[in-house]
Design goal:
Helix content: 25-40%
Radius of gyration: 45 Å
Largest sheet: 4 strands, mixed
Number of strands: 15
Structural class: alpha+beta
Strand order of the largest sheet: 4-3-5-6
Oligomer: single chain
Shape: extended
Strand content: 5-15%
Length: 703
């Protein structure tokens, strides 16, 4: 197999021989050494040379390495008749040379241990087809011993099996064992990685048709890349839209399905951009799509191009260059539209009163009333500062009370001359809990409640269109909190401070408070997160408040006091009604309870109805649609075999609003599809008993 430099080689029979020379006992000082191979020819089983990566044959290989490496080939099922090593003449001059060889043996053994510590494996394939005679050594020669653990010899001296050394590892120091284990693990990892790469091509076609897969609590949808479209588009797609526009929704969904980025400019959110829309298109109709600075058209033009199959080509041609400066600009966060907000005509008087009146804490009716002033004190300040009579001062005081600048400390009346005490709106004790109050009241001229409600609805609808799933069951609260739309909503919510809600009609009032409830839930989840326990839920529904029309409104007040006609909360320990008989807010309670309101209110949980906002003109029809969607989704399940109807727990909590059990089922039938209605009709018509089971309520957040 190779050439040895001055070394006797151990053959398969355990003897020694030199080519053309027999070694006598006195020529050897004892032991056996492993020297470096020089210009050795390493042959494969077929007799081929095995050069290294550089094209040179392997050198510096010792027989122990060769035997160790040959074991690897044995493990792979190759059989060999023996390991034969080519010999050359080695002149032995004297015993001193053999002593030097023995010392060299120790160095090679130490180097071998270092190689084993480093995890280095050497490989050799013996040649079994060489016709060279093996001459056994003289019987009186000492039998060499292999390094411990390197070879396992049978009693008769035959090599029946070559195994890897295990004893060397045991004799290594701790650090050596650690390095050896780590290197072996690293080698195994590389082998597994190479195997996985080989298998990846075979399994690649198997995964091409996978569109979705489920992990624990997570659904992952896989979308294949469209190779026909160049995704390195340099231009910009933008379109003008409005809230609650079906054509705008269709355009938005089309771009999302195509995986295209676009900029939406909602003129209901950004009113100042409507003028730009008219200037660019000559009309105020939406949607209007722009590729860079060029007007493409509306939904009709988009459908025409899509049906012709030329959309990708047209898109690449128009967006293959960088967007110029004269294209519609994206909305910028933090910049408000300039609006001509008129200042209230009474604000000059209010500012004087805030400076001149002595604001004190007083004891009245065995209670300490904070931050109040006397009626007589206010009248005197107005008489002296504005040079008016007492009657005129009292009349101004009544106007201030009607516009919610001041209130009676016990809310017993508006404003009367006498020994009464009042406080400014910003000094009310509930103000710290009102999150739409930002340091001061809105001193502008109050807008009508209908106008403020309509503007809020448009902004909130735009938020839902951009930051919720298509079925409105999942809300991206983080995305909403960082959006320009929500920032504008928070600013607009301050217009609610002093609106006159009593001026609303019945349908306007219903839509107004439904929308206010859903908006407050979104704001509350963003502000403080969804509550987990019972105590947290109580705080969520009671302590989170808005300042509206000079009064505070929590989620419980809106739902049970306004929408449910001042009824007690069914899951509360408080037996008192939301409003007392002297509460001014009682005038706002709806005269008749509509059970459909329960399907229009979303409290931010997975078991609640989908979030939506209502228009004053179509609120009744929209509530019926919300009820049908709720029951068709998972609000009711009918099991004919067990004669059981599974209902949402909402139906149990508010059973007083729906009626008795059979009355509830008959009422629900008006909002079921044909399949569920047929099953429920069959159960109710055969005269048998029907079991009602209410499902557990999922309080986790609907994000």
């Amino acid at each position: 197999m190779g050439s040895l430099n001055g070394i006797a080689v151990h053959d398969m029979a355990g003897g020694y021989e030199r080519k053309g020379e027999k070694i006598n006992e006195e020529d050897i000082s004892g032991g056996h050494a492993c020297e470096n191979f020089s210009s050795s020819e390493i042959f494969s089983a077929a007799g081929d040379l095995n050069p290294d990566d550089s094209g040179k044959l392997e050198t510096n290989r010792c027989p122990s390495d060769l035997i160790k490496a040959s074991q690897e080939t044995v493990e792979f099922g190759q059989e060999f008749s023996g390991i034969e090593i080519e010999k050359r003449d080695v002149p032995v001059e004297d015993r001193q040379e053999m002593s030097a060889m023995a010392e060299n043996l120790n160095e090679v053994q130490n180097a071998l241990l270092e190689d084993l510590d480093s995890g280095t494996d050497t490989a050799v394939i013996s040649e079994a087809n060489r016709d060279e005679q093996i001459i056994p050594p003289h019987s009186k020669l000492p039998k060499p011993e292999a390094p411990p653990g390197l070879l396992n010899l049978l009693p008769d001296g035959d090599f029946n099996q070559v195994e890897r050394s295990q004893s060397l590892k045991e004799n290594l120091p701790t650090i050596g064992k650690y390095i050896l284990d780590q290197s072996n693990s690293f080698s195994a990892a590389i082998s597994r990685r190479i195997s996985s790469l080989k298998e990846s091509d075979e399994s690649k076609s198997k995964w091409n048709n996978v569109t979705e897969f489920n992990l624990s609590g997570l659904k992952v949808i896989v979308k294949q890349k469209d190779e026909n479209r160049d995704f390195s588009l340099k231009g910009r797609i933008s379109f003008f839209s409005r809230s609650n526009c079906r054509d705008c929704t269709a355009v938005r969904l089309f771009f999302r399905e195509k995986g295209l980025k676009f900029v939406e400019i909602n003129v209901d959110v950004y009113p100042s951009r409507e003028k730009e829309l008219v200037e660019r298109t000559g009309a105020s109709s939406v949607p209007q799509i722009f590729f860079n600075e060029k007007l493409f058209g509306g939904l009709v033009a988009l459908n025409s191009l899509r049906n012709s199959g030329e959309f990708d080509q047209r898109l690449s041609g128009m967006l293959g260059r960088k967007c110029p400066d004269d294209a519609p600009a994206p909305p910028v966060y933090g910049f408000d539209d300039h609006e001509d907000d008129t200042v209230d005509e009474l604000i000059a008087i209010v500012r004087v009163l805030r400076q001149k009146l002595p604001i004190q804490d007083r004891l009245m009716k065995m209670k300490i009333v904070n931050n109040c002033f006397a009626c007589a004190e206010m009248v005197e300040v107005m008489i002296q500062h504005f040079d008016c009579g007492r009657q005129k001062a009292i009349e101004i005081g009544k106007q201030l009370a009607r516009k919610h600048f001041i209130h009676h400390v016990f809310r017993e009346h508006d404003f009367e001359d006498g020994n009464h005490f009042y406080r400014f709106l910003e000094h009310e004790p509930f103000i710290p809990r009102c999150i739409n109050f930002r340091g001061s009241t809105n001193d502008g001229e109050p807008k009508t409640a209908a106008a403020v409600g309509l503007r809020l609805t448009k902004i909130l609808s735009a938020i839902l269109e951009s930051y919720t799933s298509d079925d409105r069951r999942h809300v991206d609260y983080i995305g909403i909190s960082n959006s320009e739309e929500f920032r504008r909503y928070v600013i607009l919510a301050q217009d609610l401070h002093r609106v006159d809600i009593l001026a609303l009609s019945s349908d306007e009032k219903l839509a107004f408070f439904l929308n206010l409830y859903n908006a407050m839930v979104i704001h509350s989840v963003i502000r403080g997160g969804r509550p987990n326990g019972v105590i947290d839920r109580r705080s969520f529904f009671s302590d989170f408040q808005y300042l509206v029309g000079g009064n505070s409104y929590s989620l419980n007040i809106i739902k049970n006091g306004i929408l449910r006609n001042n009824r007690r909360s069914p899951y509360s320990l408080n037996i008192m009604k939301p409003f007392s008989n002297s509460d001014k807010r009682l005038e706002l309670a709806l005269p008749k309870l509509n059970p459909l309101i329960h399907f229009g209110l979303c409290n931010g949980t997975r078991s609640s109805p989908s979030v939506r906002f209502f228009s004053p003109t179509g609120v009744e029809a929209e509530l019926r649609s919300a009820a049908r969607e709720f029951f068709q989704r998972d609000g009711i399940e009918v099991d004919l075999d067990k004669r059981t109807v599974h209902l949402s727990r909402i139906m149990k909590w508010f059973s007083a609003d729906f009626g008795q059990e059979k009355e509830i089922l008959k009422w629900i039938m008006n909002y079921l599809d044909a399949t569920k209605a047929g099953l429920l009709t069959h159960l109710l018509s055969d005269g048998g008993p029907v079991n009602l089971v209410h499902n557990n309520y999922d309080w986790s957040v609907n994000s």
